[in-house]
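Design job #97: recover the sequence.
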């Protein structure tokens, strides 16, 4: 049988130790033992199985929908690699079935009969429950870290850097104004000073670009970037999780986490409040 291999890892805690390489090696060996011919390998890295909006997955499904699909089966390490959402799994497997393509889990051998279908449904439902429950645990952990004043984002705001702090057997992060790159610290101060003098975000961005300054990613300044700085309470030392304008979590049913004086601020609270009026 001509097969495609599909492997996926996400950044979730449940994927720790389940590397792309380990999945590929196991699937290649399995295909060889079963006498299958591997025609394609699809890899999604740092992609959640809770959604089907994964680049390699969508490419694989698009190929399966063509007039003459290049493969007859899709091999996965476990069914939860294909999807952690029961509805997505049912929808795409039905589409594949109509094209004569089957999904095979090397670690969950299932017979093609009513009992096998029932067991498959049970496994997928358990995977979905486990994923949702894990997601809630991770969210609770993030909120608890934030309540204790730790920075839980990936990239520190412009003008700050992360400092590792030992917390039991783990290392967590706090923020400090950037004492190494003083240009970013001074630029952040300049942005608020210009706002105090009634300069708009567009005027501030133009002035910084004119002086050859760049953002932390090396990009030119935009009024949107300036606005995010002027509305971010991080700059006056306040940690806010889930309550900043433009942040997706602001619509969460849970109240935002706020910790005053979580780290040294770059500007005074009074300055921030005037700039955001």
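Job complete. Output follows.
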């Amino acid at each position: 049988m001509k097969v495609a291999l599909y492997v996926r890892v996400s950044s979730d805690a449940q994927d720790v130790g389940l590397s792309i390489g380990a999945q590929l090696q196991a699937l290649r060996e399995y295909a060889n033992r079963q006498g299958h011919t591997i025609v394609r390998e699809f890899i999604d890295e740092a992609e959640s199985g809770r959604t089907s909006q994964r680049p390699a997955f969508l490419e694989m499904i698009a190929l399966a929908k063509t007039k003459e699909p290049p493969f007859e089966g899709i091999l996965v390490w476990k069914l939860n690699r294909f999807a952690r959402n029961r509805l997505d799994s049912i929808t795409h497997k039905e589409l594949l079935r109509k094209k004569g393509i089957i999904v095979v889990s090397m670690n969950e051998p299932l017979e093609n009969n009513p009992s096998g279908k029932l067991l498959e449904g049970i496994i997928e439902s358990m995977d979905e429950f486990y994923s949702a429950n894990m997601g809630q645990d991770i969210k609770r952990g993030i909120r608890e870290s934030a309540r204790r004043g730790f920075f839980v984002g990936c990239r520190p705001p412009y003008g700050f850097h992360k400092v590792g702090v030992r917390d039991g057997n783990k290392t967590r992060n706090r923020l400090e104004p950037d004492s190494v790159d003083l240009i970013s610290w001074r630029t952040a101060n300049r942005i608020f000073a210009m706002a105090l003098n009634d300069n708009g975000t567009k005027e501030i961005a133009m002035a910084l670009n004119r002086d050859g300054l760049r953002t932390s990613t090396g990009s030119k300044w935009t009024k949107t970037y300036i606005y995010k700085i002027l509305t971010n309470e991080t700059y006056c030392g306040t940690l806010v999780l889930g309550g900043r304008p433009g942040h997706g979590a602001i619509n969460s049913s849970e109240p935002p986490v706020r910790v005053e004086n979580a780290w040294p601020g770059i500007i005074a609270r009074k300055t921030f409040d005037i700039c955001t009026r």
